[in-house]
Design goal:
The protein is mainly alpha-helical. It is built from 17 helices and 3 strands.
Length: 504
């Protein structure tokens, strides 16, 4: 195996193709994520687009099932890629399906009755069916796209190349550049002019990603994401090509050994841990989104508006009392901006520790991520109390600090987890196990939706801090779950590191 100094320092050009493609796909996905719950609940943007008129509990439950199924479908898409089509073809097919899904969601506004009635199967079946078809296309499209593009990042690097972890952090920055822009562009369009414009913007973003992948992939992704290798005795190859071919055939057909099963066990255990993380973190799209909308003081003072650039002022929302406010969706950009700012810093920190032989193992990084996201919701407890005492006028910095700690936790866990799967999974099952990894997110997102629906809607629950604290008890619950699992992960980290057999 090569030493770390034997590998090139620069990353392959294919990384930037995948970076750009994922950036646009995430722009589309997070635009839709930013506005979905707001669209479902009775929060109007104008008389022409009054939303679905659902309750918070109904919206949170659907949001949980949608995001859950989005992360369950990669199990099927990954299996198809591994066995039949290869990752590159599946990325293209998935991008096409998601493009159609976004425009189908936009079409809901053009087929609905338009009288402001609550959208149900009895009142407006055409609109609801159109909406569900759009969600279905998004779910299946993501199933083909999500696991395969992540696996292709890993395929750019040979075993033992430490650049792989850094590559996933860079790749993760692409995800979050898209996530940062989506609420500012798509979210503003949706809240100011109508939700269908937000979905249209998302669809256009998906088209940009598809064009980028198609145009530049042929040149910069040669040999990456191809269909499974098959034995062909009549094929003409150079000696070097034959060695690569035989190695690929061996990896696709060799029996799994003890080390493989140990590493698969680590993937399974860390997948369980990650459920606790995303249950808490994914409140950003549901309960925290509504908290930003109705419990946070978003009013922009005249003095601030006077020194704000005109193109930003034009994005402000006029409230019922005539004052101007920031769109609620903008808060979801805090996390993404934090990723873009802090991802390079975390890369430098991990590299600095690695050179001194003290870089935390992957399980230890997971534990740190869980504890940090726990802190993020402890921060929200005084914010919930302030919101209750002021009639929904909590200071905006509570949400900002919440997203900041959650961002640090995400950087310890999510990009590290993607890299871990590509290193630990057997080559012939790489996309499948990436699907398993995302299946953990599926379970978490469904549970997150139901947690928000049963405990975080309305005034929340009251079991420790009391009714006068508003959502504080709900936020306490969201803090306790990852805290407990985080300490368990910390205790098990040495054993899990041992079972990784040298892969850190």
């Amino acid at each position: 195996m090569k030493n770390s100094q034997d590998f090139p320092k620069r990353h392959p050009s294919g990384l930037w193709v995948l970076f750009t493609t994922e950036m646009w796909e995430r722009f589309a996905f997070y635009t839709m994520r930013a506005i979905l719950v707001l669209y479902l609940v009775d929060v109007s943007t104008s008389e022409k687009t009054p939303g679905f008129g659902w309750s918070e509990a109904e919206a949170y439950a659907l949001y949980g099932w949608y995001t859950g199924l989005v992360y369950l479908s990669p199990l099927l898409g990954g299996w198809i890629a591994d066995r039949f089509l290869g990752q590159r073809a599946c990325v293209t097919f998935g991008a096409i399906l998601m493009t159609l899904g976004e425009f189908c969601l936009a079409a809901t506004e053009f087929v609905r009755l338009g009288d402001g009635s609550k959208i149900t199967m009895e009142i407006d079946p055409t609109a609801l069916i159109t909406f569900y078809i759009g969600l279905g296309l998004m779910i299946f499209g993501n199933g083909f796209f999500k696991p395969c593009i992540s696996v292709m990042v890993g395929q750019l690097y040979v075993q033992g190349d430490r650049r792989r972890d850094d590559a996933f952090t860079i790749f993760y920055m692409g995800i979050n550049i898209g996530a940062f822009l989506s609420p500012l562009v798509g979210g503003t369009m949706a809240e100011k002019f109508g939700y269908h414009f937000g979905f249209m913007i998302a669809g256009l973003g998906m088209i940009c990603g598809l064009i980028s992948f198609t145009m530049f992939g042929k040149r910069h992704l040669k040999g990456i994401g191809i269909a499974p290798v098959k034995h062909d005795p009549n094929a003409e190859r150079t000696q070097e090509e034959q060695v690569v071919h035989e190695k690929a055939l061996h990896e696709q057909n060799r029996p799994l050994v003890r080390e493989d099963w140990d590493r698969i066990f680590v993937i399974a255990v860390l997948s369980i841990f990650v459920i606790a993380f995303w249950i808490t973190f994914e409140q950003a799209g549901s309960s925290l989104n509504i908290f930003a909308k109705i419990n946070t003081d978003r009013t922009v003072s005249e003095s601030v508006a006077a020194v704000t650039p005109g193109f930003i002022v034009g994005s402000f929302i006029t409230q019922d009392n005539g004052t101007q406010a920031f769109p609620a969706t903008w808060y979801q950009s805090v996390n993404a901006l934090g990723i873009v700012i802090f991802a390079p810093i975390f890369t430098i920190i991990w590299a600095f520790l690695a050179r001194r032989g003290i870089e935390p193992s992957t399980p230890t990084k997971f534990a740190l991520g869980l504890l940090l996201v726990s802190i993020s919701f402890l921060v929200m407890i005084p914010g919930a109390v302030e919101a209750k005492m002021t009639g929904g006028k909590a200071a905006p910095y509570w949400l900002v600090f919440c997203y900041l700690f959650a961002t640090w936790g995400e950087l310890c866990l999510s990009p590290v987890g993607l890299s871990m799967v590509t290193k630990l999974a057997p080559v012939r099952l790489a996309s499948f196990f990436m699907g398993v990894w995302f299946m953990a997110s599926c379970v978490a997102y469904i549970l997150a939706g139901y947690m928000a629906s049963y405990f975080g809607s309305g005034d929340g629950i009251s079991f420790f801090l009391g009714e006068k604290s508003g959502l504080a008890d709900f936020f306490l619950l969201m803090a306790v779950i990852p805290m407990v699992i985080g300490f368990i992960a910390l205790a098990l980290a040495p054993k899990l590191k041992q079972m990784m057999h040298g892969t850190v």
